Amino acid sequence: MAGKYFDEWQIGETITHEIRRTVTETDNLLFTTMTHNPQPLHLDIEAAKASEFGQILVNGTFTFSLMVGLSVGDTTLGTLVANLGYDKLVMPKPVFIGDTLRAETEVIGLKESKSRPGSGIVTFLHRCINQRGEIVCQCERAALIKGKAA
């Protein structure tokens, strides 16, 4: 188990996740079609070329999902009770096919659970960063995490 228990987290703790992922055309095409998203910017090379971006734009919900997925092994794997919500999701820069993405996580909140003694809510700030060092996605995630004794 790689995740940490509630009592092991500290506010301000930051993790640079080791796994990186280069986004492929297949990633974008499969995710976009699996989620029934007909946006031409994700699927139609000619429409994308005519846009201000000049190329296919990677589906933002793929970027968000990848960012969270890259964090799981170091944060909540085996210790998660439930994700309680995602907040303040922003995508300040576009992601293109061929971009290599990585993630960082900072603990910004800790609160003991009132309904589950020994467990608590950890609020993570996740950041997804491309190969140019630009933040392409960011959000806060509240997760109910088991306590070590729970």
Q: Would you kindly provide a written description of the structure presented here, covering whatever features stand out?
A:
It is a single chain. The chain is of the alpha+beta class. The protein has four helices and six strands; from the N terminus they run E-E-H-H-H-H-E-E-E-E. Strands 1, 2, 3, 4, 5 and 6 form a six-stranded antiparallel sheet that branches. The longest helix is centred in the middle third of the chain and has 16 residues. The chain is elongated and about 55 Å long. The model has no long low-confidence stretch (mean pLDDT 96). Pfam families: MaoC_dehydratas. This is MaoC family dehydratase. InterPro entries: HotDog_dom_sf, MaoC-like_dom, MCH/BMMD.
What is the averaged pLDDT score? 96
Share in helix? 10-25%
Order of helices and strands: EEHHHHEEEE
Strand content: 25-35%
Number of helices: 4
Number of strands: 6
Outline the low-pLDDT stretches. none
Q: Can you tell me the overall shape?
A: elongated
Given the helix and strand composition, which structural class is it? alpha+beta
Based on CA atoms alone, the radius of gyration comes out at: 17 Å
Main beta sheet: strand number and arrangement? 6 strands, antiparallel
Our measurement of the CA-to-CA distance between the termini, rounded to an integer number of angstroms, reads 15 Å
Organism: Sphingopyxis soli
Protein name: MaoC family dehydratase
Pfam family, one: MaoC_dehydratas
Domain MaoC-like: 10-122
